[in-house]
Each structure stands twice: as structure tokens, then as C-alpha cells.
């Protein structure tokens, strides 16, 4: 039995995301290319006797912080220790850095063994049929190259490390729409909606006030096809985000355990109405 772990290229990242789709994680249509922009060396795939069987990502945003995701072993190869080996390979990639992940709840105890501690629950909500259309607010502006830097600067309050390369690709992806809430050219929030295997996901959704988050949510929903499912992942700790999903009668369908190996400081969870992604933080 020959098991080889290598850095995944773009085609192999697409394989990883196809596995994620099969697992029900509903990746975005542009996720392979945008994820790779975050850290081209941070995606790993395991081959057993020449066939891909396991995968993981550990995106190193800086020497101080990385985020793990896409940890998958094909079902027929589980229980052979292949997952543990690729997990250790990924951890070694960011040795010395604080690490984060969004793990399924049933695996939380295993992550604790690797030094992760629970920070909070993130909960996915679904709007089964998007009926929001023709929403208009003059403060909502499409994110483009002219206002991109304003958004990148604002984002720094919400993440443990700079992520400009990834975020630029995320904001301008072909199957995404990005809106900023600007008052006299001062930003008060922004959000992204992207086409996924099933419906659309909103993320991130960051806003200084709940009414700004509500405006962004409605603007994003009205910018895409009607009668499609809309998904939003909120931090349980933000009660105003819970009020937003309740207002639109969204249903809770899934949750993860956000965990870190070290304290990561204030990242404005009270202004986080939707996290960017379970895979990259």
C-alpha cells in the first residue's frame, strides 16, 4: 500500500470540492480558483496506489494564523489511518501559527486532542425560496475596482489576518455579487452572495448596525435568481444576526464548531451577520 501526500493543484482542488459537494457541503461554483488565491500551497491531497482518497486544506494567511478545512476521506477508505496522516501533514504546514477551523460537532473531541478549543457555534440557515426582488437602497453600491480598497480595509476588523488576495478574488468572482453599504463614501458594511451547487450562499455579511445588515441581505437576495435557496452561516453569539434570520423565516439546517488553538483577539463578532465560509474562515 503506497500512500503519497502532495500539494494539490487547481484540478485537484476541484476534486476536493466535488467530494465536498457529495458530502453535502454545497461549495460555490468559483470556490476552487478563489480558494487557491488564498494560499496556493495550502491544499493537500492524498493518493493511495495512485488514486486520490483523502484531502485537507490549511490556508496560511500569515506566519501567525492559518485556517483548516476540506478535511475529507472518501468513505470506502476511512478507518485506515489515511485521514490522520494527511491531518498531521497539514498541521505541520503551519507549525507555530495559531490555527482555526469549523468542524462538525461530532468531531469536536478529536480536534481537542490536537489542541483546538471551542470558541462558538456557527449555524447555517436556509431561505427555501428567495422571493426578495427589486430591493433598492441608494447606499448599496456594487463592489468594483474603484471601491475595493475601502472594503479590504474594513474587512481587517473581522479576521485574524490580512486576506487581501483571497478577498479580492472572492469579491470579484464570476458567479458572485458583492455589495458595500456606503454613506458619504464611508463604509458601514459589506456582503457577498455566490452561486453554489444548490442555490446561493451569502458570506461574509459584516455590518456596523442591524439595519445595515438587513439592507445588505435584501440587496444581495434581490440581485440573484428568484425561487432559489439562500444560505447564511451566522455566529450563535450574535443575537441580532439571529433576529435577522428569524425575520426572514429562515430554517436552521446545520451547525459547526468554530475552534482555535490560541486566542485570536477581537474580530467583531457582534458585527458579523454571516461568516465568509466554513472552509476558509
Topology:
Blueprint: E1 3-7, H1 10-22, H2 31-38, E2 43-48, E3 51-60, E4 65-73, H3 82-93, E5 98-104, H4 108-113, E6 117-127, E7 140-142, H5 148-155, H6 164-171, E8 176-183, E9 186-195, E10 200-207, H7 210-222, E11 230-235, H8 239-247, E12 251-260, E13 272-274
Parallel strand pairs: 4-5, 10-11
Antiparallel strand pairs: 1-2, 2-3, 3-4, 5-12, 6-11, 6-12, 7-8, 8-9, 9-10, 10-13
Helix pairs in contact: 1-2, 2-6
Notes on the structure:
The protein is an alpha+beta fold and 281 residues long. The chain has helices at residues 10-22, 31-38, 82-93, 108-113, 148-155, 164-171, 210-222, 239-247; strands at 3-7, 43-48, 51-60, 65-73, 98-104, 117-127, 140-142, 176-183, 186-195, 200-207, 230-235, 251-260, 272-274. The protein has two domains: 3-106, Aminopeptidase; 125-274, Aminopeptidase.
Amino acid at each position: 500500500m503506497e500512500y503519497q501526500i502532495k500539494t494539490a493543484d487547481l484540478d485537484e482542488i476541484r476534486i476536493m470540492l466535488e467530494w465536498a459537494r457529495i458530502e453535502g457541503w454545497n461549495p460555490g461554483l468559483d470556490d476552487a480558483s478563489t480558494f487557491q488565491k488564498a494560499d496556493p500551497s495550502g491544499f493537500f491531497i492524498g493518493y493511495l496506489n495512485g488514486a486520490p482518497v483523502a484531502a485537507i486544506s490549511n490556508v496560511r494567511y500569515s506566519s501567525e494564523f492559518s485556517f483548516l478545512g476540506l478535511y475529507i476521506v472518501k468513505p470506502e477508505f476511512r478507518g485506515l489511518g489515511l485521514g490522520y496522516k494527511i491531518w498531521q501533514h497539514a498541521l505541520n504546514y503551519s507549525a507555530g501559527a495559531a490555527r482555526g477551523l469549523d468542524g462538525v460537532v461530532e468531531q469536536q473531541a478529536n480536534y481537542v486532542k490536537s489542541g483546538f478549543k471551542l470558541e462558538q457555534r456557527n449555524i447555517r440557515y436556509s431561505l427555501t425560496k428567495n422571493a426578495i426582488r427589486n430591493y433598492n437602497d441608494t447606499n448599496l453600491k456594487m463592489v468594483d475596482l474603484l471601491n475595493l480598497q475601502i472594503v479590504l480595509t474594513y474587512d481587517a476588523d473581522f479576521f485574524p489576518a490580512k486576506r487581501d488576495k483571497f478577498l479580492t478574488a472572492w469579491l470579484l468572482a464570476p458567479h458572485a455579487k458583492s455589495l458595500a453599504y456606503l454613506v458619504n463614501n464611508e463604509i458601514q458594511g459589506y456582503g457577498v452572495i455566490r452561486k453554489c451547487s444548490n442555490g446561493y450562499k451569502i458570506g461574509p455579511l459584516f455590518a456596523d448596525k442591524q439595519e445595515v445588515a438587513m439592507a445588505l441581505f435584501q440587496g444581495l437576495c434581490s440581485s440573484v435568481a428568484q425561487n432559489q435557496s439562500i444560505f447564511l452561516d451566522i455566529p450563535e453569539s450574535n443575537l441580532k444576526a439571529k433576529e435577522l434570520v428569524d425575520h426572514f423565516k429562515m430554517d436552521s439546517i446545520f451547525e459547526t464548531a468554530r475552534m482555535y488553538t490560541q486566542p485570536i483577539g477581537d474580530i467583531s463578532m457582534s458585527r458579523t451577520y454571516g461568516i465568509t465560509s466554513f472552509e476558509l474562515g
